Give the backbone structure.
Amino acid sequence: MRGWKVWLLGLVIVLVDLATAANLFEFYSWFEHPFFALLVALAFAALQIGTLVLFAMPLPEATRRLLFIAAAILLSVNGLANVAMGYVRSRSVLPAAELLPALGFGGDAVSLGVVMTYATGLALVVAASVFWIALGQHVRQERDREQQAIKALDEMFSSSKQDK
């Protein structure tokens, strides 16, 4: 994959992380001073991006498992913040009475709000995790190809020196 495509995929992941960080900030602001809530949200985003970078590195399998567990915990907390904030925001503006029949949803307005916030909040987090894994694997493959090319060049240069 060309360099600009990797940067574009990285930008997508950063945007998703910032969007989930905004929800986490707003959610955590209910419990903490806004400054500390902002620090927590930024720390989550930094840890998620750092996890992506680490996934791309050659690490022992046990370390990879720990990273995967850490990423799952971070994404779960972000997913729940997405769900909570989506639900809170939708309560006052969601035209549930009009949407229920259109969607064929048999529940009430609260049930629709819960289902939709879970669907959208968690979809963002799950899709981001798939992007993380795919981009990490791509970067790892590119690094391996680069190392193989360097090794082949070294072998070519060493064999040409031996021929002289």
Remarks:
- The chain has five helices and no strands.
- The helical segments are 3-28, 34-55, 61-93, 96-103, 109-163.
- The mean pLDDT is 78.
- Residues 3-163 form one domain.
